[in-house]
Amino acid sequence: MNDRFTAALERAFEFGLESRASAAGQIAFKRSIRPRFVMPLCPIVRDGLLRSAAGGEIVFLARS
Fold first, then answer.
1. Most buried by CB count within 10 Å: which residue of 21, 52, 57, 60?
2. What pLDDT digit, counting tens, does each position of 18-35 carry?
3. CA 52 to chain centre
4. Phi-psi label, residue 55: left if phi above 0, alpha if psi -120 to 50, beta otherwise
5. How far apart are the C-alpha atoms of 25 and 18, rounded to whole Å?
């Protein structure tokens, strides 16, 4: 995290857009020289995220 991120986060705390308790509860991974293995996304989720990131449309994914 760089200085710009830290400053933006401090502003979010100041304006009440983020809580310190919530930010402190985020997951912190231990440092590792080995790669992290994660489960791949299913094609529907992957395609929805890619479309959303491309700006073509907003995609909401809900778990049923």
1. 52
2. 888 887 777 666 777 776
3. 14
4. left
5. 12
